[in-house]
Prior knowledge:
The protein is mainly β. The protein has one helix spanning 3-21, and strands spanning 47-51, 60-63, 66-69, 88-100, 106-111, 114-119, 122-130, 136-139, 144-154, 167-171.
Amino acid sequence: MNRRTLLKALGVTSAGAAVATGTGAFTSVEAERDVAVTVAEDATGYLAIDDKGNENDEYVTDGNGEFGIDLTGSNTTPGGGSGVNTDAVTVIEDLFEIQNQGSQAVDVEVSPLTFVDTNSGNTLIVLVVPETNFPTVNLSPGGTETYSLVVDAYPGGTGMGVDDEITVTGEAP
Length: 173
């Protein structure tokens, strides 16, 4: 066997052995790391949901740190009101706001924006209306979006109501 053939054979054998046994890389790693998570109330979360601290905060509830809107007879206001008028459009401006208290921009969407109840020819429509964009708003860190509420009860009829939930979604673009 000549010298060149021997060197080629050794080179091929060495390369094959390196591929078969690896080159010092690893196939898996398991490591333990700390994780810390704190659950905050809606007003202090990374995506804060809170009343604006204005004259309309009497329509906002805060049960167990969760934000809610209450325009029912069970939420009698200091002036004595207990629900919206029949055959009327009620507008509550600047009812609540959503603030990005995180470190990156997020697209925020509130859904559904419309609630409907029909009863014996009467209709109740509740609209959640964002101040700037519809239906999604992009909030940079520290940015806020204000929401109002429009309630239309026509042609009238008491005893109608909406008891549902809205979902607030924040997602990095």
